[in-house]
Design goal:
The chain is mainly alpha-helical. It is about 65% helix and about 10% strand. Strands 1-2 form a two-stranded antiparallel ribbon. Strand 1 and strand 2 form a beta hairpin. The radius of gyration is 20 Å and the shape is globular. It starts with 6 loop residues before the first helix and ends with a strand.
C-alpha cells in the first residue's frame, strides 16, 4: 500500500500521540498512591541505604527506575518514559502476534489501527502517562514474547525475568505463555527449563522483601487484601469484577466487542494461545478485581485479534467508541464509596443510568 492511503490512520495516530504527550505534561506525578509509595522507597534507599518495599511483594525494578527518573529528571521525563515503554511494548507485541498467527506480512493499516485502538483506550492512556509500572512490565513481557518467537531463548528468559521482577502478578501470564506457545517455538522439556530459570532469576528481585519478612512468604501478601472482606464468589465481588470490566472498555465499546467476538467465534476459537492469555488475565482479575489496569494484557490482546479479523470500518467504529470514553462514560449504576486512607470501598449502589466525566 502507498503511504498516501493511510492519511486517516496517520492523522488519528498523530492526534492521539500528541494528546498522550500533553497528558504526560499536565498529569505531573499523577493521582495513584502507589506512585508516591515508589518514590518513598527510592528515597529511603538513596538517603538511608534501607529498602522498604512500596507495596505488595515489592516492585524493585520500577521502584528504582521510576524513582531515579523522578528524582533527577522530574515528572515529564518520567511520564514520557512510561509512554515510550508502552509504545515499544505494543510494537513488539504486534510483531510477536503476527508470528503466532503465521502472518508473513506487516500490513501498515492494521498496525496503525492496532496502535490507535490501544492508545485510545482510556485506561491504557491514563496509566501510561503517569509514573506507574504497568508499561514497564508490559514492555518486558512483549519483548520476551517476541524474542521467544524468534527463538532467541536467552534474551527471552532475561526479559521475562525482568517482567516478573517488575510486577509479581505477571508470572501468572508468563507461565501460560511458555506452556501454551506452539511446540514449533519451544519443545515441551525446554518449556519446563525456561519456566524454572525465569522464576529463579525473577525471584532474585524479591530477595530484599523476602529478607525483610524474615524468610517468610508473607511479603507476597498485598495490603489491599485487608479491605477484601467478601468471598471471591460472593455477589459483591462478582459485581465488582463485571462492573470494572465494563468501566475498562466502556459499556458501548464492550457491547460492540462482545458482538464482534460472537460473530467471529469460529475464527477466533482457533487462536487458542491468545484466548488462554486472556483467560488467565481475567482469572487473576476475578480473584483480585481491584484496578482496571490489571486488564492491560486482555485489552491489548483483544484489540490485536480484532484488528486482524474485522474490517476497517468496524475498527474505526471501535476507535470512535474508545475516544467517546475520553469525554463521557456511560454508567448503569451509581456507587457510594467509603474512603479509607488511599483505598475506597463501595458501601451501596443503585441502578441509575447516567453519564459521568471521562478522561478529559
Amino acid at each position: 500500500m502507498q503511504l498516501s492511503n493511510h492519511k486517516i490512520e496517520y492523522f488519528t495516530l498523530f492526534i492521539i500521540i500528541f494528546s498522550a504527550l500533553y497528558f504526560c505534561i499536565i498529569n505531573k506525578y499523577g493521582w495513584d498512591w502507589d506512585t508516591y509509595a515508589m518514590f518513598e522507597t527510592y528515597l529511603q534507599l538513596k538517603d538511608n541505604g534501607i529498602y522498604q518495599k512500596s507495596r505488595g511483594a515489592g516492585y524493585l525494578i520500577p521502584e528504582i527506575g521510576i524513582g531515579f527518573l523522578a528524582f533527577y529528571f522530574g515528572s515529564i521525563v518520567t511520564n514520557l518514559t512510561s509512554f515510550i515503554f508502552l509504545f515499544i511494548g505494543l510494537i513488539y507485541f504486534y510483531k510477536a502476534g503476527l508470528k503466532l498467527i503465521n502472518s508473513k506480512k506487516v500490513e501498515l493499516s492494521k498496525f496503525c489501527c492496532f496502535i490507535i485502538l490501544c492508545l485510545s483506550n482510556h485506561v491504557i492512556m491514563r496509566d501510561s502517562t503517569i509514573p506507574m509500572d504497568y508499561s514497564w512490565s508490559f514492555m518486558f513481557y512483549s519483548i520476551g514474547l517476541y524474542t521467544l518467537t524468534k527463538r532467541k531463548f536467552e534474551i527471552s528468559i532475561l526479559f521475562f525475568a525482568l517482567c516478573f521482577g517488575s510486577r509479581f502478578n505477571f508470572i501468572a501470564f508468563i507461565i501460560p505463555t511458555i506452556l501454551f506457545i506452539d511446540k514449533e517455538y519451544l519443545k515441551i522439556n525446554d518449556k519446563i527449563y525456561h519456566i524454572i530459570i525465569i522464576i529463579f532469576f525473577g525471584c532474585l528481585f524479591y530477595v530484599p522483601s523476602w529478607l525483610q519478612s524474615q524468610f517468610s512468604l508473607s511479603f507476597i501478601y498485598s495490603e489491599q487484601a485487608n479491605f477484601k472482606n467478601n468471598s471471591i464468589f460472593s455477589i459483591e465481588e462478582i459485581s465488582r469484577f463485571t462492573y470494572k470490566i465494563l468501566k475498562t472498555f466502556g459499556i458501548f465499546a464492550f457491547l460492540f466487542i462482545i458482538y464482534q467476538l460472537i460473530i467471529l467465534r469460529k475464527i477466533i476459537l482457533k487462536e487458542k494461545f491468545f484466548l488462554i492469555i486472556i483467560f488467565f488475565n481475567l482469572l487473576v482479575f476475578f480473584v483480585f478485581p481491584w484496578e482496571p489496569s490489571f486488564l492491560w494484557l486482555s485489552i491489548i490482546t483483544i484489540f490485536f485479534i480484532l484488528t486482524q479479523k474485522i474490517n476497517f470500518k468496524l475498527v474505526y467504529t471501535l476507535i470512535f467508541l474508545n475516544l467517546f470514553n475520553w469525554f463521557y462514560q456511560a454508567e448503569i449504576v451509581s456507587i457510594n464509596y467509603q474512603v479509607n486512607n488511599c483505598f475506597k470501598n463501595p458501601i451501596n449502589a443503585k441502578i441509575k443510568p447516567h453519564f459521568s466525566k471521562g478522561l478529559v
